[in-house]
Specification:
The structure holds two protein chains of two kinds. Chain A is an alpha/beta fold. Helix content of chain A is about 40%, strand content about 20%. In chain A, strand 4 and strand 5 form a beta hairpin. By secondary structure, chain B is mainly alpha-helical. Helices cover about 75% and strands about 5% of the residues of chain B. Chain B has a three-stranded antiparallel beta sheet. The chains are: A alpha/beta, B mainly alpha. Chains A and B meet through helix 2, helix 3, helix 4 and helix 5 of A and helix 6, helix 7 and helix 8 of B. The structure holds adenosine-5'-diphosphate and magnesium ion. Magnesium ion binds next to helix 1 of chain A. The site of adenosine-5'-diphosphate has 12 residues of chain A, from helix 1.
Chain lengths: ~280, ~260
């Protein structure tokens, strides 16, 4: 089932720049979908239309099959179900207190105080920031701020969590920790995760489904395997294969090895290589 | 900002900010009202040792911070010292010109000394509060006080965004000086102008982004969060009351 769907979505900024051009995307419930695209592809713009911050020029958005109306009351309800983690945590963290910032979203849901407190504790535990509770926001590192931002969304218990370039600016350890966390949220809590990234090498590790965007349009979509099979399409649009697939591609094309180079994770590539070794 | 950092490292930061601010203010008012050297000295030493021994803030740092207002206090008080008169009888030091005497009067010297000890004692009370209590904790006290909530809200936002804008201005400054933007006075003025203009633009963008982010978390015109709870214990009140009684007794003996 698709939790969010867009049909022929278009958006132009005030300066006439067409950032989204007839984008039709379906986000399946309960899985992690990644939107892959270079800078300026329109990923952020797409996300902002999904929870009603930007009003599309034309086209429609559906939530759980129901057409989204861009009216205040409707959008407010929608925002309780769709949480967005912004790319720059400093845009999101408004409070000087970590604890108070995290509690903000839950307080806006008008929950009883006990419930808010327990949700804040739970969210902090989940993203591993209990020790930051009494710290001022400005004393945190970038990665820590990012976690606080995620916790601030989790307290609202959204059905969908959208993350705009969550891995940008994090160190390799930070990326893998964050992705584990998102996997946990997706699997254990059944939250639908939608994220944007330009991390071609890592994407297959955490995305169940990929949409590739370029210049405001959807280029292609499918499972990682499907997306990385069409090398020509990717190359002609300034994208590339993951490094590991590239290696397999070279082995296949230059050295005549029989490998499937759409294998885009370490473990898939390992399988291919083991197969190759056995067949020798 | 340095003071705020010190407050976060202080061991006394977890004590209820309401208790700390209450007794700091009471002590300050006592010092100002009673104007007694001994009490001023006692309060000063109590506050000083609370900061250094109780809070564990480095002695050298604390002395430096205390020296800061001391120069103002002494300069200001010195002005009170000097008097002019027809005789030099009630003067400690004087220069006479044509029967007019200019110098340090006995009485005004006394006033001056009182002024100095009173100021130092009062300042030490305020330093005790600021060096052991982070801003965040003070905000929570303000929220419970008579100050309107929206004022505290604005203060909190300003406090947060000072750091963001400070970071941004720092980045711009470094980027400029790396390309010799401050190599001469003339280019320095020009660069500073560009920095300020850019800072305005960035602040505007920041405000827009923050608003969008707030909205997507259900902001509807009011910033509501959970207040941080601090441990307040009867023991602190007992210590505080005993201390004030102790000061009272000393005052009776001094008179
Ligand atoms: N506030 C804005 N005003 C005008 N144009 C914008 C604005 N934000 C983004 N754009 C333009 O829209 C296009 C898509 O941007 P964006 O959605 O931010 O891409 P991405 O997030 O994939 O990097 C870009 O060409 C960008 O220059
Ligand atoms: Mg973006």
């Amino acid at each position: 089932m698709n939790i969010i769907e867009t049909k022929n979505l278009c958006y132009s900024y005030d300066d006439g720049k067409e950032a989204l051009n007839s984008v039709s995307i379906s986000f399946e419930k309960g899985i992690t979908t990644a939107v892959l695209g270079g800078n300026g592809a329109g990923k952020s713009t797409l996300f902002l239309t999904l929870n009603g911050i930007l009003n599309p020029t034309s086209g429609e958005v559906f939530y759980n099959g129901e057409k989204v109306q861009y009216k205040k009351a409707y959008i407010n309800e929608l925002r309780k179900k769709i949480g967005i983690v912004f790319q720059n945590p400093d845009d999101q963290l408004f409070s000087a207190s970590v604890y108070q910032d995290i509690s903000f979203g839950a307080t806006n849901l008008k929950l009883p105080k006990d419930e808010i407190i327990s949700r804040v504790d739970e969210a902090m535990k989940k993203v591993g920031i209990l020790h930051l509770r009494d710290k001022p926001t400005h004393a945190l590192s970038f990665g820590q701020k990012k976690r606080v931002a995620v916790a601030g969304i989790l307290v609202m218990r959204p059905e969908v969590i959208i993350l705009d370039e969550p891995t940008a600016g994090l160190d390799p350890m930070g990326v893998s920790e964050l992705m584990h966390l998102l996997e946990k949220i997706c699997k254990e809590d059944g939250v639908t995760v939608i994220l944007s990234t330009h991390d071609i090498d890592g994407i297959s590790n955490y995305a169940n489904y990929i949409y590739v965007m370029n210049d405001g349009e959807v280029l292609t979509h499918g499972t990682p395997h499907q997306v990385f099979s069409d090398v020509e399409l990717l190359r002609s649009n300034n994208l590339r294969l993951p490094r590991i697939s590239h290696l397999l591609e070279i082995l296949s094309k230059e050295d005549g090895a029989e490998v499937d180079f759409s294998a885009s994770t370490i473990s898939a590539a390992r399988r291919e290589l083991l197969k190759l070794l056995k067949n020798r | 900002m340095l003071i705020d950092k010190l407050a976060y490292r202080s061991r006394l930061r977890y004590i209820s900010p309401a208790v700390k601010s209450f007794y700091a203010f009471v002590c300050m008012i006592i010092c100002i009202a009673l104007d007694c050297h001994i009490i001023n000295a006692i309060v000063f030493f109590t506050m000083f040792s609370l900061i250094v021994i109780g809070g564990g803030t480095k002695l050298k740092t604390v002395i430096n911070i205390f020296l800061l207002p001391l120069s103002f206090i002494i300069l200001g008080a010195a002005a009170v010292c000097f008097t002019a008169g027809n005789t030099s009888n009630d003067m400690l030091l004087s220069i006479g010109v044509d029967g007019l005497y200019l110098g340090i009067g006995k009485q005004s010297f006394d006033v001056c000394m009182h002024l100095i000890t009173r100021c130092i004692a009062a300042v030490s009370c305020m330093y005790f509060l600021t060096l052991t209590t982070p801003m965040l904790a003070l905000f929570s006290v303000l929220r419970k006080s008579i100050v309107p909530d929206f004022v505290v809200e604005i203060m909190e936002l300003i406090y947060r965004y000072i750091f963001i804008l400070y970071d941004i201005s720092n980045q711009i400054y470094i980027a400029q000086s790396a390309r010799l933007g401050y190599a001469s006075i003339k280019t320095g003025y020009k660069s500073m102008g560009i920095l300020i203009a850019n800072l305005f633009a960035r602040a505007y963008r920041q405000a827009e982004m923050s608003y969008v982010a707030l909205e997507s978390r259900g902001y509807e015109g009011e910033i509501n969060t959970i207040d941080i709870e601090y441990k307040s214990s009867k023991a602190y009140h007992i210590i505080g009351v005993v201390y004030i009684i102790f000061i009272g007794i000393i005052w009776i003996h001094c008179r």
